[in-house]
Amino acid sequence: MLHVASCEQAKELLNLKFGNRYVGKEQIALADVVNRVLAQSIVAKEDVPGFDRSTVDGFAVHAADTFGSSESIPALLRNIGEVTMGKSCELKCERGECVAIPTGGQLPQDADAVVMMEVTEDYGDGLVGITKPVGPGQNVIYRHDDVSFGEEIYSCGKRLKTTDIGALAALGVTEVLVSKRPIVGILSTGDEVVPFDVTPRIGQVRDINSVLLSASVTRTGALPRRYGICSDDDDMLQERISAMARECDVIFLSGGSSVGAKDALKRSVEALGEVYLHGIAVKPGKPTLFGEVNGKPLIGFPGHPAAVYFIYDLFADPLLRGMMGEIITLPPPCYKAKLTNTIPSNHGRQEYIAVSLTTEEGLLTADPLMSKSGLITQFTRADGYIEVPRDCEGFSEGDWVNVIAL
Amino acid sequence: MLHVASCEQAKELLNLKFGNRYVGKEQIALADVVNRVLAQSIVAKEDVPGFDRSTVDGFAVHAADTFGSSESIPALLRNIGEVTMGKSCELKCERGECVAIPTGGQLPQDADAVVMMEVTEDYGDGLVGITKPVGPGQNVIYRHDDVSFGEEIYSCGKRLKTTDIGALAALGVTEVLVSKRPIVGILSTGDEVVPFDVTPRIGQVRDINSVLLSASVTRTGALPRRYGICSDDDDMLQERISAMARECDVIFLSGGSSVGAKDALKRSVEALGEVYLHGIAVKPGKPTLFGEVNGKPLIGFPGHPAAVYFIYDLFADPLLRGMMGEIITLPPPCYKAKLTNTIPSNHGRQEYIAVSLTTEEGLLTADPLMSKSGLITQFTRADGYIEVPRDCEGFSEGDWVNVIAL
User: Which residues contact B201 (CB under 8 A, 6 or more apart)?
Assistant: First the structure.
């Protein structure tokens, strides 16, 4: 498996080797669940709503008593009292009677509909005129219309959103069993790499990749742990990788850009564990490495930060989601935009191209950022990226393309 | 301004009244900047790259020395040494000479191109054969090709993404001036409302809205502060709202669902400050209130959690972003999906309809969740929502619609 793999082969390999590396579960408070992955299914422990409720302000009635009523011939009903918000209603509504009820109030016994306040008239002496008929069940939400006791609301593996915390609160769920967040060890390697807050001397470059990988890991919902920078020395590399393999769930290395540095990284992984793949037919990101040390998945990222970004999105993000047991049912939402420039064929490699987006009269245009190795320009101007599939002939100026948001 | 406003009027009013409520700035470490809004523009303090670099492994040369070279008649150059990664290169490359160079290495003085290792041959005795010509500048990225000293990289008001932290690290930025996060006081009101972790008695409902609003505020990047639940008592309401106006930057109230509760809320805001608007022609969410107490913007949300979600997205999210000085240049990315059911006209109100999405052979279908007041069902099944504009005749089954992700 050490030849250059296609993207599909690389994904299959990741799945084959690491598809079962689940990191475990933990119980957390409801307030903290957004963006976490459910490690249990959620079953309703009660009916929602718990009682028959009015959905409007008005009068609870027998629907049959309102049939045929109109502005000219209103139905006359006797008002026998009112429902109080937040209190159980003890009133019983007989035929010919009505009960004043607020939105959300409990429907009185035997009433089967609510007429809106707007179509009623107070005739005094406890008499109310109804000027428009209602059907049975109208303006009422019945007990367990929304959810019934024992119904499965969410299945295991779902990543929870803002709305889900609302639904769980409605069910009275106070604690939730979620997947643990994998601890991701991050190490930058390369003799030329210095910490990003140090001014590089000639020949040196700042460590951008571990900053970028940390932020990416956080975005996926896992926990980054930084192991600094290591030079291309086999002994030091092996010592550092061994420590990461003991202390973390996953190992992310970002390689030096030279052949020598890449070799040192590969040798070290081979010495400690196994290299499964070295080289993927993707642009940018060819010199990517997948391996395993001490039972921990390992990804060796390319040196160029733009390549790191795409390789992360393409392979590392799904790996981490898989380790949390996440079941992904939808692709990410896209921008549909018109290309400002032709993108040539990519000669058998899957290609990712950063684009900047501009809105003009409600239409989006996508401007490909093709700078040679211009990292900062690519990152600062990019709003998203487009995927050029392996066998694609490229795109022409004016084509509509799908842009995945950064 | 107390009639029912259109969505556009409501947005204009928010902008008119609160368009200038900037919350201030703070300096934070680079590691924490993702999702924060820049309160300064970022200007490059150095050239990137800081020196002329090779983008491949190979030999630095004078391009002119390689012209006309081929497999059969290679150009012969004398190898005078090698560039070491991470070190400044002191070598000078004269005509007829070449210097071994790794990817990222500094280009030796006077060399103007790099030939890739793959098109060279080692003839021994320090002689290297070049089998393919290169042009001047080929395989080289020049000093400040990417960014020049003094260039503006980001403008004030930009919300920073994962890639931006990479670009800032590349520029050696260690601290960034960002907008403070507005503190948002959140209060649920209503005699019938009990904390979500309490089992409601008949007639009572759980407080879903403050849980939902907290999570939403966090998602926008502001700081929620919860003030619990208050009954529909004018004195207690006024006391609680006054405290929020002193301690927070914004006040979010979620109203009881009955007319009486709504009146209590409106009376209290009027007693303490001003009500600017009560009622928006939007479904769900009509009984929304905008006001101001003690100079602090106030939004009174409807009682129904689904309405709270949409009103938050439509009005509260832009308000908070505006208070952070965020400049929004793009709409959110969308799903394009085929409707499974007809959605009727909405009679002059802008309408928001939650949908669930299904992927079938690469095509997305959107299933409208039209349940009467089925909150949980709407929230648990929804993947996004569609907007039905005010004057729209509705959508037909099979229409392609834009779905905004939840």
Answer: A88, B194
